[in-house]
UniProtKB/TrEMBL annotation:
Keyword Coiled coil part of the UniProt annotation: yes
Keyword list, A-Z: Coiled coil, Cytoplasm, Translation regulation
Residues annotated as domain Sigma 54 modulation/S30EA ribosomal protein C-terminal: 130-183
Alphabetical list of Gene3D superfamilies matching this protein: Ribosome hibernation promotion factor-like, Sigma 54 modulation/S30EA ribosomal protein, C-terminal domain
Summary of the function given for this chain in its UniProt record: Required for dimerization of active 70S ribosomes into 100S ribosomes in stationary phase; 100S ribosomes are translationally inactive and sometimes present during exponential growth.
Protein name, entry field: Ribosome hibernation promoting factor
HAMAP family documented for this protein: HPF
Cellular compartments annotated: Cytoplasm
Species: Celeribacter arenosi
Record note on quaternary structure: Interacts with 100S ribosomes. Associates exclusively with 100S ribosomes, which are dimers of 70S ribosomes.
The family this protein is said to belong to: Belongs to the HPF/YfiA ribosome-associated protein family. Long HPF subfamily.
SUPFAM superfamilies associated with the record: Ribosome binding protein Y (YfiA homologue) (SSF69754)
Coiled-coil regions listed in the entry: 73-100
């Protein structure tokens, strides 16, 4: 497993890096069979330290956790607890679900854009129909089954997830509907 442990405008020492690797590997070994990589970023906001951790699993799931505390080790411990809780919950839900998967989930790149909010009043027409793009970023689109995509979306706490349906070439979307149910957009079944 690959670890990337860094600090945003703060220096983190070897002792903290070793502690993070040991503790995180214990948490991950307990609940995940084939983790691929982990990214842990420490930052400081006023008097508090923030810790953000992202762990990618070969099943396609991405577990994310963040926490803050007045001490850097305490921030990591709180973050590790949240990560363990997430992985424990999803391990129960995934029991035997990925037993047949022998290869890691295929992931391909895509562009992601953030568009500017409209500055116009609701009753005024905009000058142009071209939206202003604030940011363009690279994102990863995994190849998953619909069930795995729903679990990935819930694990990330996201309202929507774009994925490529297993065994098909089309891009699909799962999203949380206003009534609390999950919606699935499959262009293959469009008529």
């Amino acid at each position: 497993m690959r670890y990337q442990i860094s600090g945003k405008q703060i220096d983190i020492g070897e002792a903290l890096q070793t502690h993070v690797q040991n503790e995180l590997s214990e948490v991950i070994k307990k609940y995940a069979e084939r983790p691929t990589d982990a990214h842990v970023v420490f930052s400081k906001n006023g008097a508090e330290f923030n810790c953000e951790a992202v762990v990618h699993l070969s099943t396609g799931l991405t577990a994310q956790a963040s926490a803050h505390a007045h001490e850097i080790y305490a921030a990591f411990e709180a973050c590790a607890e949240k990560m363990e809780k997430q992985l424990r919950r999803y391990k129960r839900r995934l029991k035997d679900h990925h037993k047949d998967r022998t290869e890691p989930v295929e992931i391909f790149g895509a562009s992601q854009y953030i568009l500017a909010a409209s500055e116009h009043e609701d009753d005024q027409e905009p000058d142009t129909l071209q939206p202003m793009i604030i940011a363009e970023m690279q994102t990863r689109v995994p190849t998953l089954s619909v069930g795995e995509a729903v679990m990935q979306m819930e694990l990330a706490g996201a309202p929507v997830l774009v994925f490529r349906n297993e065994g098909k070439t089309e891009v699909n979307v799962v999203y949380r509907r206003p009534d609390g149910n999950i919606g699935w957009i499959d262009p293959n079944n469009a008529s």
